[in-house]
């Protein structure tokens, strides 16, 4: 996010050096709605660095019998994909091809959208990605400045769903055209929950969910994603893979996170459809 230079410098240092924070790295004893999605996925993980985009993807993609959906990623201010390495690997292990923008300034969303272009080329070329990337299923997500970048990148018609994680202010929800999950941290003093709720309130034209992680600070998503890892995985498993097991985390009368003590505030707007009666 574009803040004063002293604050930006503080954010960069904290992203690169901060230790694990409360919430976050210690799973509570109770069973929570998204816990099953915290565990590693079935795929080995491979990483392909690039000048503009670093790819995290299932290491068995060449022999896979299916096409794999895409997640495009934007870093926080001053950060690189390596700051979020565990989280990006986690999604790849669950079967996604993650295109992480190699930029510390992802607010525009342009570098994130370049990841879709790169995968379009690889999907048509000889090599392990040929015919294995599902370019009809694309999600955009990112942290802090990258969260705003995810919103901006979603102006692209190729993006189907969006997960802004503690997004900075320089974005407009009017660009969204698919379901959106806004994630905030209860103890975030850099992007306070009120800012994230402002985006949610402006998203009445699309199905929107707001979820505030109890005890989370602005740096909870770094590393392996902390308390945001399972919920983001569940969202993408449902919206990009049609995984029915993940639907109840967000949808229906008995929405999992709605009554989950790991989340201090959960809201769903009028466009979030209730589950059919047979699912209740």
From TrEMBL:
UniProt GO MF annotations: 1-alkyl-2-acetylglycerophosphocholine esterase activity
UniProt record, GO biological process: lipid catabolic process
Assigned EC number: 3.1.1.101
Subcellular location: Periplasm
Domain of life according to the entry: Bacteria
A GO term from the CC aspect: periplasmic space
Alphabetically ordered keywords of this record: Hydrolase, Lipid degradation, Lipid metabolism, Periplasm, Signal
InterPro entries from the UniProt entry: AB_hydrolase_fold, PET_hydrolase/cutinase-like
Enzyme's top EC category: hydrolase
Keyword Lipid metabolism (UniProt): yes
Domain called PET hydrolase/cutinase-like: residue spans: 54-246
Record bears the keyword Transcription: no
Chemical reaction(s) catalysed: a butanoate ester + H2O = an aliphatic alcohol + butanoate + H(+); (ethylene terephthalate)(n) + H2O = (ethylene terephthalate)(n-1) + 4-[(2-hydroxyethoxy)carbonyl]benzoate + H(+)
Signal peptide: 1-22
Descriptive protein name: poly(ethylene terephthalate) hydrolase
């Amino acid at each position: 996010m574009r803040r004063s230079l002293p604050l930006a410098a503080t954010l960069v240092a904290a992203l690169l050096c901060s230790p694990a924070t409360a919430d976050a790295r210690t799973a509570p004893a109770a069973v929570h709605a998204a816990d099953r999605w915290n565990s590693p996925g079935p795929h080995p993980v491979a990483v392909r660095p690039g000048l503009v985009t670093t790819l995290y993807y299932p290491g068995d993609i060449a022999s896979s019998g299916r096409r794999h959906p895409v997640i495009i990623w934007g870093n926080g201010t001053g950060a690189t994909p390596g700051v979020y390495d565990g989280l990006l690997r986690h999604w790849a292990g669950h079967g996604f091809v993650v295109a992480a923008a190699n930029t510390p300034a992802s607010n525009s969303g342009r570098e994130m959208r370049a990841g879709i272009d790169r995968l379009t080329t690889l999907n048509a070329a000889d090599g392990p990605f040929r015919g294995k990337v599902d370019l009809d299923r694309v999600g955009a997500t990112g942290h802090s400045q990258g969260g705003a970048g995810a919103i901006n990148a979603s102006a692209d018609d190729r993006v189907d769903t969006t997960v802004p994680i503690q997004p900075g202010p320089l974005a407009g929800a009017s660009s969204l055209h698919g379901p959106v999950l806004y994630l905030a941290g209860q103890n975030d003093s850099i992007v306070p929950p009120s800012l994230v709720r402002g985006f949610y309130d402006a998203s009445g034209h699309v199905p929107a969910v707001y979820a505030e992680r109890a005890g989370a600070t602005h740096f909870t998503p770094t590393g392996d994603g902390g308390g945001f890892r399972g919920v983001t995985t569940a969202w993408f498993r449902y919206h990009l893979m049609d995984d029915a097991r993940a639907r109840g985390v967000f949808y229906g009368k008995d929405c999992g996170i709605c009554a989950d003590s790991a989340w201090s505030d959960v809201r769903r707007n009028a466009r979030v459809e209730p589950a059919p009666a047979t699912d209740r």
